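Q: What does the assembled structure look like for these inputs?
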Amino acid sequence: MTTNRRKPAGRPATLPDVAREAGVSRSTASRALAGYGSVSPDARERVRAAAEKLGYRANQLARSMITGRTHTLGAIVADIQNPFFAGVTRGITDAARAAGYQVLLANTDEDVAAERAAVKMLRDKHVDGLIVAPAATTETAHLAAAHAAGCPVVLLDRQAPGLPADSVTVDNHGAAQDAVRRLLAAGHRRIALVSLLGTAPVDGAGAASSDPVSTGLERIEGYRTALREAGLTDTDTYLRTGTFHREDPADLTAELLSLPEPPTAVFATDSMIALGVLSAARDHGLRVPEHLSVVTFDDTDWARAVRPRISVVAQPVQELGARAVHSLITRIEGTAHAPEHIVLDTEFIERESIAPPRSGT
Amino acid sequence: MTTNRRKPAGRPATLPDVAREAGVSRSTASRALAGYGSVSPDARERVRAAAEKLGYRANQLARSMITGRTHTLGAIVADIQNPFFAGVTRGITDAARAAGYQVLLANTDEDVAAERAAVKMLRDKHVDGLIVAPAATTETAHLAAAHAAGCPVVLLDRQAPGLPADSVTVDNHGAAQDAVRRLLAAGHRRIALVSLLGTAPVDGAGAASSDPVSTGLERIEGYRTALREAGLTDTDTYLRTGTFHREDPADLTAELLSLPEPPTAVFATDSMIALGVLSAARDHGLRVPEHLSVVTFDDTDWARAVRPRISVVAQPVQELGARAVHSLITRIEGTAHAPEHIVLDTEFIERESIAPPRSGT
DNA sequence: GCCGGCATTGAGAACGTTCTCACTCGCGGT
DNA sequence: ACCGCGAGTGAGAACGTTCTCAATGCCGGC
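A:
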């Protein structure tokens, strides 16, 4: 009974199949389905019916060959497991899908070489544009090249000075300054900052990382500004920065807490560092906020569920991703215009992790 | 001085450009670069040099048109912001990249319609295969269709009975049973389970969700088995299941804690539910583990940083993703074979969130 | 000297679309 | 009766590869 072998399809129906079924040419079928040019109502309906009957779905690869558009965006982030980037990625995929785009995802682990490789692969696949949280501020030749070659780039969360690309960030300096001010207002004077910056230097050269990312640096500057405002000139005594995959924030904190005059408050530059801080505090038998006040960037789900609930600088993570997508798509579909730098607002969420310092300073 | 306008390239170099530069035909250039057929050492070298000089990169779209392979995998998960899926996605992207594949990502929010739409888009883009954490157990026609049409599917974290697809899961029943046994061993008798299952039913029909996912069900069965083992026949008194986006795990827990005879221990079926449980416990002025013992699936970063540290059933999240990729790629590249069902081991990590119940049962 | 075989090569088709162009109608205006 | 025009249509090129196939040249064996 299955002798009729038209529809069952060994291979999926193509445009010629639809055209044949509808009794028109490929051109007319294409016009009818894509809705351009002019097609008689009759032909249009016959094509529609034929397409439906055969279960026709246009091959996007072939279409992309012609149009030069893949309707695919590349997203290059440091680590999807970091709640910040998870949220950002969520924002990206949702906004992209709403706009009719798909997202090709790549992790870099803050490694510039991995980022370069990712850009290469994504461009080979002809993504229409790139959303990148760059691993380094200065080594951005691959991004500049992509941009120049007509594959627009929008920077996410981080700036890259020389690059004529759009960017979507928050006011890290201001937000950090504000957070530290709150600690100062509670009476703290010995306020630490714990952060992780950049990747391990390639040459065994040095102490600091070779090329830290802008975000961390701005937060540190905000911290320093707040301290100076309060008349504290020695802004780096309690400043601890480590390197990704090398230092553990918990160790950095442990060292701080073992100081003769340990800090009474800690400012963590992201949620994963805050976890290390909390862990170290516990190991030292310190209670938050009685013995140690804690503030961190990023309002993760656990920050409002743990005891005490943690006061945080909340970033609009999903919106960050969504705005990046919109910037990118306007640039893809629109005309050339000067790079725009979108700066979104953060929100300080006061909870229970800040208290006045125990005894006097 | 820039009159020579060969290399500067208005458009990227194509194979004909390379062939011309090397003084050979397209065919030879293609053979030299792809490394098949036979090419003289001389020609091979000239082509290589020409390609390098022009900065030639093969257009993967065009290649895919011919070969029928895109070297792209589709990953369809419920919610990338859930740490479990974030970890799984990390495993997927890493394993895929190592194998020379890219990953197209889609979120479903546990919504079958969204899943269907995602499958459609991804197949239009001609992904070589699909990794899916299906939102429903029975509504899998779109997955079966993809599989039958030569777009292999591997199920991740969840089973779908009728589907002849590979799967990678953990032993949810056993792991849940083991976790509840630990609570029983600590002396608990009133042990609750809090879970979220399926999506809201489309018709306003009913109490329970229409088509819950296998994972949650298996965990519930494991819980029941453990209780029955211990001679507790009434296994559903403290069983609370809600619906995604409708019920809040914290509310479910709050209701349990307000019971005349409240549970002395709670088993959460994933980390986001555990957060709700913890939150509700805090709101009721209950301390963990003194007043309430807590165990959960998923070893997230915060579980070992908060006080008390939470005992968990750790799933090998990254490996789950990596194994799914490997299964999928062997099926893509290999010959047809019977569906294989990989079951990975979980590990119970004992920490500080379990204590004997306060007074008597 | 002839023939079989192998290495090397290039012409051209194919993949499934979109797009440009030229052609044929039918109709209304002059 | 003729022209112009617009709607509708189809032929064919184009996108940038891979792949099939036939042709060429060279070599050694007989």
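Chain B touches chain A through 49 residues (CB under 8 Å).
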